[in-house]
Amino acid sequence: MTVSAHRPWRGVLVATALPLNDDLSVDYDKYAEHCAWLVENGCDGVVPNGSLGEYQVLTPEERAKVVETAVSAIGGSRVMPGVAAYGSAESRRWAEQARDAGCTSVMLLPPNAYRADERSVLAHYEEVAKAGLPIVAYNNPIDTKVDLVPELLAKLHGEGHIQGVKEFSGDVRRAYQLAELAPELDLLIGADDVLLELALAGAKGWVAGYPNALPGASVELYHAAVDGDLTTAKRLYEQLHPLLRWDSKVEFVQAIKLSMDIVGRHGGRCRPPRVPLLPEQEATIRAATEKAVAAGLA
């Protein structure tokens, strides 16, 4: 499947994990290779500088270079960077950096330095939209304490500030309400463990975590789900769900990096304050990953 030039956020876009060296510096060569490998395995693009990419603990220089590395590896139309920041001016600067690097869309959380009200949210997206790139909103009320409910998303879309939304609330019912309120707003699956439910509800894409480790099987699952091939989709979903559910847990970065290590990719360490998994967590993820590998899903 080719990336839609008009809506480059459609399809499977992987929120990329960031390979770190033993001294916790960024391994840009491995990151470039990882982006290319994901596309070779059927993914449509990448989302650098999301939470999974540990953007909060990168220096500004590192954060910019991550975007440039992805663009040079797979082309700007396949790269939708996260541009979240505490202030609207900084988010706008990251959107401008993405634009200047050759990207054709960005992903933006609401203001998250405090529990923002509706007026603040609208002002934030209006400001970042001035960079001139289409924005996919990211609704993560669990972490940000700001909930982009369907009515607010419809308002943001009606004002021309957003073209899509990565929906991470886990509330599948919202998909149907959103389709009624803003039929032209693209719904993107935002949590791996509600993939099937949101695909059936009309999602146009998936901002994905676990394809970092298992891209082929994940892409097959996504396409079966959106094409209505429920026999294939349900089988793969049940096989992958013991892993997919870690995407919604606090330890999702460590979990996905561990699975990457197990399948022969470079997951590696995380920067503090993220700490290593507990032994029982590691055992659970290791067993589920090895079972997926044994089932031919890697």
From TrEMBL:
Residues that bind pyruvate: V207
CDD domains given for it? DHDPS-like
Q: Where are the transmembrane segments?
A: none
**Keyword terms, alphabetized:** Lyase
Which GO MF term does the entry hold, naming one? 4-hydroxy-tetrahydrodipicolinate synthase activity
The record ties this protein, via InterPro entries, to: Aldolase_TIM, DapA-like
Query: Does the keyword Nucleotidyltransferase belong to this entry?
Result: no
Q: Which SMART domains match?
A: DHDPS
Q: Which SUPFAM superfamilies match?
A: Aldolase
Enumerate the active-site residues: Y138, K166
Family the entry assigns: Belongs to the DapA family.
Name-wise, this protein is Dihydrodipicolinate synthase family protein
Q: Which organism is it from?
A: Streptomyces spongiae
Kindly list the organism's lineage.
Bacteria, Bacillati, Actinomycetota, Actinomycetes, Kitasatosporales
